[in-house]
Design goal:
The complex is a heterodimer of chains A (about 110) and B (about 120).
Chain A lengths: L4 E3 L2 E4 L5 E6 L6 E8 L3 E9 L2 E5 L6 E5 L5 E5 L8 E8 L8 E2 L3 E5 L1
Parallel strand pairs in A: 2-11
Antiparallel strand pairs in A: 1-3, 3-8, 4-5, 4-9, 5-6, 7-8, 9-10, 9-11
Chain B lengths: L2 E3 L4 E5 L4 E3 L2 E3 L5 E8 L6 E7 L7 E2 L2 E6 L4 E6 L8 E9 L6 E3 L3 E6 L1
Parallel strand pairs in B: 2-12
Antiparallel strand pairs in B: 1-4, 3-9, 5-6, 5-10, 7-8, 8-9, 10-11, 10-12
Chain lengths: ~110, ~120
């Protein structure tokens, strides 16, 4: 069974540009979660999608947005990139039921210069 | 909001020895889930073990076991017979039973297994 896959592995952007990160969940999982792992800040919850709807959002500005497609894959978009957006972005998926374990991908390393 | 605290930034352990990682959390809820995840250099977060707060019995997964002290809000991880592949960052995480499926993570402990 394929795990959670994320693309690209690395992404380099300049300040002010937009970044798009992609995530494919484990087959059968309907929930997708996005986390930001920045140096010194640990893992911070960004977004939770389930069945195509945004279910919950962390304490991030509106320039962080995303969507979930009918096949349950997801995109995270970051507009007007700032230097402090440089981080590892981790996607996770789970069965749609509450409290199902989260399974993570290998992440996308975003570097903003 | 729940907070999770891990206070031992880096620990070294000899191969085959035992290491214990500590974690405390703050919540007003009575039922919840606690997790330990490991993140090796490959960056993938891997679920190590899960504990349901309403279960008194401590969870065990092969060489990994927890000491769950609900009253003290403590959730430590013991790695027995450490192996080189155990070298990783270990994160303690909390999940509420009510609603948002959000995991609250601690800052992590770096464990280095020395041959």
């Amino acid at each position: 069974e394929a795990g959670v896959t994320q693309s690209p592995t690395h992404l380099i952007k300049t300040r002010g540009q937009q970044a798009t990160l992609r995530c494919s969940p484990i087959s059968g999982h309907t929930s997708v979660y996005w986390y930001q792992q920045a140096l010194g800040l640990g893992l911070q919850f960004l977004l939770w999608y389930d069945e195509g709807e945004e279910r919950n959002r962390g304490n991030f500005p509106p320039r962080f947005s995303g969507r979930q497609f009918p096949n349950y894959s997801s995109e995270l978009n970051v507009n007007a990139l700032e230097l402090e957006d440089s981080a590892l972005y981790l996607c996770a998926s789970s069965l749609g039921r509450a409290r199902s374990p989260l399974h993570f991908g290998n992440g996308t390393r975003l570097t903003v210069t | 909001a729940q907070t999770v605290t891990q206070s031992q930034p880096e620990m070294s352990v000899q191969e085959a020895e035992t290491v214990t990682l500590s974690c405390t959390y703050d919540t007003s809820e009575n039922n919840y889930y606690l997790f330990w995840y490991k993140q090796p250099p490959s960056r993938q977060m891997i679920l190590v073990i899960r504990q349901e707060a309403y279960k008194q019995q401590n969870a065990t997964e092969n060489r990994f076991s927890v000491n769950f002290q609900k009253a003290a809000k403590s959730f430590s991880l013991k790695i027995s017979d450490s192996q080189l592949g155990d070298t990783a960052m270990y994160f303690c995480a909390f999940m509420s039973l009510y609603g948002n499926n959000r995991l609250a993570f601690g800052k992590g402990n770096q464990v280095v297994v020395i041959p």
